[in-house]
Specification:
heterotrimer; A alpha/beta (about 240); B alpha/beta (about 300); C alpha/beta (about 375); A: about 240 residues; alpha/beta; Rossmann fold; six-stranded mixed sheet; 9 helices; globular; C: about 375 residues; abc type-2 transporter like fold; 2 domains; five-stranded mixed sheet; 14 helices; about 70% helix; nucleotide-binding (chain B); ABC_transporter_ATP-binding (chain B); ABC_transporter-like_CS (chain B); ATP binding (chain B); ATP-binding (chain B)
């Protein structure tokens, strides 16, 4: 049996009389790419916020990276990385200032940071622009950098909330190369997306609708089960 | 219906549009396809008279967008990229407001929006800010149509919208097209190209190609080989290490391979991968899709 | 016309549905008035005074009695010579000295005029001004009751001297100042914010693409705030009158017309700001730093203009609020007519026209 990195049992989150997450139960295994799909307003963002320790659930048992979601949110935060489409980096800081800031927040020593920074800039081919403001870089570069920064402190899990919105198809694939690489290095990737072809890149996919998880399996098995030729059809059959 | 000639537009040193020319025929559903920052929004804003081009000209139903901007504003329905209705007004109040602004009433053109509006009518007393994403979109579309425009311009209506709502939205557009409205829509989703009559592929302010979606893929001469194996990450890395590789991109559960001179055969790859210990290997030649074409056009433009 | 009507209706929906806007519109004016009002009001009860009665006749004693029984004043000392005045002020406790000249009652009966001197410690200008105003009011009241048939407004000419700050150009009632500030806040800041909010939300894009004319958008934005500002001006004047007892000696109609003029000016400023500001935050910043602070600091509302360095004095002439406060003070406190404030009114009209022209010209019919 593979090692579980996230366990969720009967997670419920209510806002007044609106139930955003209705009894979610699922596990995420170490090193997998877990696709978290659902229509707008299905409750994805709420669930991610709870798992990141930003919001507390109404009820249920949850462990992230081995830590309890109610009592050990501080420890959880040290062991996860987070990147969303909206916030990624400070536009008015340079590339290397952003890295410095982030390393500082996570208490990474200056020596270690310098080594990692050099390696990172080389890998992303950003050495030439390291003293440029983030605001002046193309969107695709920013996203790649934002992802690398989110895993700079070697978290056990990285949460990606629609990381590839709006970028061109080539950049989008280069971005997924990074995700694959991170997963290959043992980082668990928890990702939401609206691109259904990206759902295929995931090891397993869960599909939410109206606060509930309606399906959870590998893309291949889901397609078989719903007799669909691609994930797009699976999604539409479930959410419609 | 829409005629664009040599339009250029720069913001400071950034060239947002570079000598763009295109024509949209009467009654067409035309797609402007490209990623963020390609210049789609700038072009649509010029057409809706919100921006002036640095050079070049554009005509909407024979009206100059610069000189006759007041007339153009009467015949255009526009749905901007962000949700741009009054969140603190109810569904009904929004609709009535935009109707009066255009000097008409909601009843007068109800026929046109009936199919769209009836779905949100049960919530007409609800504030627009409290609607779900899909409903907001339907309301925004209703408001853009309320004055019965000849041309409908939509800026990324499906961005950030889930697959189901996207599908519904395109069905609505198809229905509107039947009512003799010319539609120009922009989108970053390549798979939506197939839903348009004709498309323009746009990247970095330049048009890569304009044609019907089918012809765009048919014209494409490169050979695309689709490969699948158990371990995708390893597969992609190994394919990239292959001596004759020009490009390898992940496509859903497959990787799409392009060889340097299109002479690489399927069985060549098959043996190569088996030698490296891949299991469940599947290699076949396929017809390219719009996304394949876009990526290759983009790469060759960059070079 | 129908377009404009529905635009205005929409604008009112925005205002009435946003608790924050409602609070700024109706909570802040009242709060500010109460704060300024109570600060000043608490000081005007129990003001220590000293009296130097040279006449020592029936009239002077009756006036003294009236003053002391009014509740505003406490007699600290009866003085015996003019030299005592300086000494007693220096001690700091006494705020006002009243001097009745020789033969005070006799002169009043015989010649219909009498002389008294009011000397105030003007190191705290507002209190000084208030003390003088109250004293004069009480004395006048007394005379009117004594000789109801006399028509002249003042038979006793109080000779006012402001100690320590002889000219006392700056100290006036707080109501005109608060009024100028609040009207500036509501009119300029709220309009500029409501326009930039549409830019931020993207609704401005749709409005621009629609056949609405810029003038319609501007008028539609201005009218709701014009009405609300007028309502606010009413509240302020009435509260000033009935809660704090600030008199309106002049024409109420003229007062309101001048107020509307000032509101129009501020609204145009608001629109002007919105043509430069990209988002609500910038609009708010410009309104705060560019309008509210100067209105408070440079209009003479808090700090006397005369005591400012020359460059700031010059700058204060550019403050519309300065003219408005002058006008309002003249109408409310001095009871003068338009004839006396036509210059200031002309300046305000000029400013309004200038800002209207500029904002219509600058209002963009396109983005960017």
């Amino acid at each position: 049996m593979e090692e579980k990195i996230i366990t969720v049992k009967n997670m419920v989150k209510r806002f007044g009389d609106f139930t955003a997450n209705d009894n979610l139960t699922f596990d995420v295994y170490k090193g997998e790419i877990f696709g978290f799909l659902g229509a707008n307003g299905a409750g994805k963002t709420t669930a991610i916020r709870i798992l990141c320790g930003l919001s507390s659930p109404t009820s249920g048992e949850m462990k992230v990276a081995g830590f309890d979601i109610y009592k050990e949110t501080e420890k959880i935060k040290k062991n996860i990385g987070y990147m969303s489409q909206k916030f990624s980096l400070y536009e008015d800081l340079t590339v290397s200032e952003n890295i410095k800031l982030y390393a500082g927040i996570y208490g990474i020593s200056a020596k270690k940071r310098k080594a990692k920074e050099a390696e990172l800039l080389k890998k992303l081919e950003l050495e030439a622009v390291k003293n440029k403001l983030i605001g002046d870089l193309p969107l695709g570069w920013k996203q790649k950098l934002a992802f690398s920064v989110a895993i700079f402190h070697d978290p056990k899990i990285v949460f990606l909330d629609e990381p590839t919105g709006g970028v061109d198809p080539v950049t989008r694939r280069k971005f997924w190369d990074l995700i694959y690489e991170a997963a290959n290095n043992g980082i668990t990737v928890f990702v939401t997306t609206h691109y259904m072809d990206e759902a295929e890149y995931c090891n397993r996919v869960s599909i939410m609708d109206a606060g509930k998880i309606e399906a959870l399996d590998t893309p291949a098995k889901l397609k078989e089960k719903y007799k669909a030729k691609n994930m797009d059809e699976v999604f539409i059959k479930i959410a419609r | 219906m829409i005629e664009i000639q040599n339009i250029s537009k720069s913001y400071k040193e950034v060239k947002a549009l570079n000598e763009i020319s295109l024509k949209v025929n009467n009654g067409e559903l035309f797609g402007l396809i490209g990623p963020d920052g390609a210049g789609k929004t700038t072009l649509l804003r010029i057409l809706t008279t919100l921006l002036l081009p640095d050079s070049g000209s554009a005509k909407m139903d024979g009206l100059e967008v610069c000189k006759d901007f007041k007339k153009v504003r009467h015949i255009v329905g526009y749905m901007p990229g962000r949700f741009s209705l009054y969140q603190d007004l109810s569904v009904e109040e929004n609709l009535n407001f935009f109707a009066t602004v255009f000097g008409t009433t909601a009843d007068e053109n109800y026929d046109l929006i009936r199919d769209i509006y009836y779905q949100i009518e049960p919530f007409k007393k609800r504030r627009a800010g409290k609607l779900s994403g899909g409903m907001k979109q339907k309301l925004a579309l209703s408001c853009a149509l309320i004055h019965k425009p000849k041309i409908l311009i939509l800026d990324e209506p499906t961005t950030g919208v889930d697959a189901v709502s996207r599908k519904e939205f395109w069905e609505m557009l198809k229905n509107l097209q039947k009512k003799d409205i010319t539609i120009l829509v922009s989108t970053p989703y390549m798979d939506e190209a197939d839903l348009c009559d004709r498309v323009a592929l746009i990247q970095s302010g330049q048009i890569l190609d304009i044609d019907t979606p089918t012809r765009i893929t048919e014209k494409f001469s490169r050979r695309i080989i689709q490969v699948h194996a158990q371990n995708m990450y390893k597969l992609i890395n190994d394919l990239r290490a292959f001596e004759n590789t020009e490009a390898v991109y992940a496509f859903g559960q497959f990787a799409h391979f392009t060889g340097k001179n299109d002479e690489t055969e399927c069985n060549e790859l098959d043996t190569y991968l088996h030698k490296l210990g891949h299991t469940n290997v599947l290699v076949e030649e396929i017809h390219p899709g719009i996304e394949d074409v876009f990526m290759h056009l983009m790469e060759s433009h960059n070079r | 016309m129908e377009q404009l009507r529905s635009f205005i209706k929409k604008e009112f929906y925005h205002i009435f549905r946003d608790p924050r806007t409602m609070l700024i519109l109706f909570g802040i004016p009242i709060a500010q008035l109460l704060i300024f009002g109570t600060v000043i009001k608490s000081e005007i009860t129990d003001i220590h005074i000293a009296i130097y009665d040279q006449a020592k006749d029936k009239t002077s004693q009756e006036i003294t009695h009236k003053l002391l029984s009014s509740g505003y004043f406490i007699l600290d000392k009866n003085l015996e010579s003019l030299d005592d005045i300086d000494a007693i002020f220096k001690k700091g406790k006494v705020r006002e000295v009243i001097v009745f000249k020789n033969d005070f009652g006799k002169n009043l009966v015989k010649e219909g005029t009498a002389e008294m001197q009011l000397i105030a410690d003007a190191s705290d200008p507002n209190t000084a001004k208030l003390a003088i105003a109250y004293t004069s009011a009480i004395v006048n009241d007394y005379i009117k009751k004594l000789y109801p048939e006399m028509h002249m407004p003042m038979q006793i000419t109080p000779e006012v001297r402001m100690y320590f700050n002889e000219e006392m150009q700056s100290a006036y009632m707080f109501v005109p100042g608060v009024m100028a500030m609040i009207l500036m806040l509501i009119s300029a800041m709220m309009t500029s914010i409501s326009i930039t909010r549409e830019k931020e939300l993207g609704t401005m894009e749709i409005l621009l693409v629609s056949p609405l004319k810029p003038a319609q958008i501007i008028v539609g934005k201005v009218i709701p705030y014009l009405f609300l500002s007028i309502a606010n001006a009413f509240v302020i004047v009435l509260m000033g009158r009935f809660v704090f007892g600030v008199p309106i000696t002049g024409s109420f109609i003229l007062l309101m017309l001048e107020t509307i003029l000032f509101i129009m000016m501020a609204l145009c400023l608001g629109i002007l700001i919105s043509t430069v500001a990209k988002n609500q935050m910038v609009a708010m910043f410009i309104s705060m730093i560019g309008l509210l602070l100067p209105t408070m600091l440079l209009s003479g509302f808090i700090f006397p203009v005369k005591n400012m360095p020359i460059p700031l004095q010059v700058l204060s002439h550019a403050m519309p609020a300065k003219y408005f406060i002058t006008i309002i003070r003249a109408i409310m406190l001095k009871g003068v007519g338009l004839f006396y404030v036509w210059k200031e009114t002309a300046v305000l009209i000029g400013m309004t026209l200038f800002f209207i022209a500029l904002s219509v010209k600058k209002f963009k019919i396109r983005l960017e």
